[in-house]
Design a protein that fits this description.
By secondary structure, the protein is of the alpha+beta class. The strands form 3 sheets. A 4-stranded antiparallel sheet has the order 1-6-7-5. Strand 9 and strand 10 form a beta hairpin. It has 6 helices and 10 strands. The chain folds into 2 domains: about 120 residues, N-terminal domain of MutM-like DNA repair proteins, CATH 3.20.190; about 120 residues, Helicase, Ruva Protein, domain 3, CATH 1.10.8.50. Helices cover about 25% and strands about 20% of the residues.
């Protein structure tokens, strides 16, 4: 599933092609995505010009004159900028056709993504209204994580993956950040000290920033808005490295499942 760095990579890739462009029509081939594509999208969006392309958590916000397209990639979603006449591929569900002859084409084999429309401020949309702070924003800190963790017996890994606590820390980057901070992923969130949370917040920020610089992580089917894979996979220290030697101490990386998610860690470096 694309995580925050992958979604930010897509945003950076498509923004120059969308900003200032006017939508001439919307083509919906498959309206049954995770949530039904609203009929208003094809009625209200044509004639409007995209002003900004933003990201909130894992949602892309395509802000037009009088509304916002809310796009989520789900598990297998992809968006590409293509000539409108480009041959269709299987699972190409929607096109936002631009006046310059290009289109934003949405492909999603498992249909867990979303293509929504709102004329209100998108931050008020039910999917976005209760989200936690952005991990790269000033509002995110170790002190805030420590405050939210008080009394929590939930393991720290799913705690930092809770989008009500902080957004965008998906499975790959949670494992990597916990390794960098020296914190065992199964430790109860309420038993992590404030100093450790400060280390963890710093690690989350640095790892996500580096992943963005490298275009995200391509494991199977993620590609950016220009079709390029992400290269952060080469920098992974623990994720998907079961039984391989730890890059810090040489002990074999361990694997377990936490909250039905694959979890990787070093028993020597994380406690």
């Amino acid at each position: 599933m694309p995580e925050l760095p992958e979604v930010e990579t897509v945003r950076c890739g498509i923004a120059p092609h969308l900003i200032g462009q006017t939508v001439v029509r919307v083509v919906i081939r498959q309206p049954r995505l995770r949530w039904p594509v609203p009929e208003d999208l094809a009625v209200q969006l044509p004639g409007q010009t995209f002003q900004r392309v933003e990201r909130r958590a894992k949602y892309l916000l395509l802000r037009a004159d009088a509304g916002t397209v809310i796009l989520h990639l789900g598990m297998t979603g992809r968006v590409r900028i293509l000539p409108v006449a480009a041959p269709l591929q299987k699972h190409d569900h929607a096109d936002l056709v631009l006046a310059n002859g290009q289109c934003l084409r949405f492909n999603d084999s498992r249909r867990f993504g979303a293509l929504l429309w709102t004329t209100e401020e998108p931050e008020r949309h039910p999917l976005l209204a209760t989200l936690g702070p952005e991990p790269l924003a000033e509002a995110f800190s170790g002190a805030d994580l420590h405050r939210r963790a008080q009394g929590r017996t939930l393991a720290v890994k799913p705690f930092i993956m809770d989008h009500h606590v902080v957004v965008g820390v998906g499975n790959i980057y949670a494992s990597e950040a916990l390794f960098a901070a020296g914190i065992h992923p199964l430790r109860p969130a309420g038993r992590v000290t404030r100093d450790e949370y400060e280390r963890l917040a710093t690690a989350i920020r640095e790892i996500l920033s580096e992943a963005i610089r490298q275009g995200g992580t391509t494991l199977r089917d993620f590609f950016g808005g220009t079709g390029e894979p992400g290269y952060f996979r080469q920098a992974l220290c623990v994720y998907d490295r079961r039984a391989q030697p730890c890059v810090a101490c040489g002990e074999p990386i361990q694997h377990c499942r936490v909250g039905q998610r694959a979890t990787y860690y070093c028993t020597h470096c994380q406690y």
